[in-house]
Every structure is written in C-alpha cells, then in structure tokens.
Design goal:
The protein is mainly α and 196 residues long. The chain has 10 helices and no strands.
Length: 196
C-alpha cells in the first residue's frame, strides 16, 4: 500500500507536465539559460527540486523536453502528396506569435549550446533529431514520387536552408520570421534548389 501511495505522489499528470513546461519556457525567456536554475523552476512551479530531478534528470533534459512539448506538431504525419504541399503544411501549422517566441528562445539557447555539451546533446536527441527524421521523410517521399532527383545535391542542405532562412531574417532584416516569409522562402529558395 505504501508503494502505491508513493507511486501516486511521483506521477505527474499530463496537465501538470504541460504547466511545468510552460513555466520552464517562461523562465528561459525571462532570464536565459545560464541564469535558469532548478531552484527557480521549483519555486515557479511549486514543485520540489527532488521531483524535478527525478522526472527529468537534469536542467538540459528538462529544457529540451519543454521545447519539444512546445512544438505544435510533428512533421511525421504530414503527407499532402507533394513536397510543396508538405512544406507549406509544415509552415501553416505554425503560429506567427509562437514563431517569434520560439526564435527568441532559440537565440538564447544558441549561445548556451557552445558552453554546454550536455544541453547541446539533449537538444539534438529530443528536438533536432526528430525534426531531421521528419524532414528527411518528406524529402524521401518527394524523391519516390519523382519530384526531386535522388542525386540532387541540394537534398542534403534543405535543413540548412530552413534554419538559415529562419535565423537570417532576424539578423539581416531585424524582423521576426512569420508564415508569409517562410512560404515565400520555400517557393523562392528551397524548391528551386531542389529542381521544383
């Protein structure tokens, strides 16, 4: 009986998990990665630090999972029948406001990644690799449909082009990325590079 009670205490409901993740992202936006502590997360979420470590193991893993949870949808379930349709569906699933928030988070994390290999690895495992897999699936289907030549050298750079467009607009134009920009970027840069 005591084990059942203890197990109930340590189980976090999906609603509570979502609240914790939102609090983590809010703190990350407010103070940045380096100043974000498990103590601050525990205080903000009215949790114990022991619970946070038991559930997530480390600050990098907690942040990576919070970012993953924040993603509106996976690319894995997108299949419109054309690469242009798939890429546009990917953009349509985003929200301009959320993209601006996400860009601010990522700017803050880019610096921290260089000084923290554990954060870099957690982000690669929980956020980047699943997205790369989903994007590679979209591209593989485009090759199978005959939309893109299998030997097109741009295939291996699509993710670089996507990230570059996302980062460069803010850097070059001092404007946040939005759906209209990404849709235009896909048509003007990515699809022509792939021969579409």
């Amino acid at each position: 009986m005591a084990e059942t009670v203890a197990a109930r205490r340590t189980r976090i409901t999906p609603e509570r998990e979502a609240e914790l993740y939102e609090a983590v992202l809010d703190l990350l936006r407010e103070v940045g990665y380096d100043a974000l502590t498990m103590d601050a997360v525990a205080a903000r979420t009215r949790s114990s630090k022991a619970t946070l470590y038991r559930q997530w193991g480390s600050k990098p893993e907690l942040i990576a999972k919070a970012l993953r949870h924040n993603k509106p949808a996976s690319l894995a379930d997108i299949d419109t029948g054309s690469l242009r349709g798939d890429l546009n569906e990917m953009v349509a699933r985003s929200d301009d406001c959320q993209m601006e928030k996400d860009a601010a988070l990522m700017r803050g994390l880019f610096h921290a990644i260089h000084d923290n290999p554990e954060l870099h690895q957690a982000l690669r495992n929980l956020l980047i690799e699943p997205e790369l897999t989903g994007l590679n699936d979209l591209l593989r289907r485009a090759v199978e449909r005959g939309e893109v030549a299998a030997d097109n050298p741009a295939l291996e750079y699509v993710v670089h082009m996507m990230v570059g467009g996302f980062v460069a607009r803010d850097l070059i134009e001092d404007r946040p990325v939005d759906r209209a920009f990404l849709a235009s970027y896909i048509d003007a840069v990515i699809l022509p590079a792939l021969g579409i």
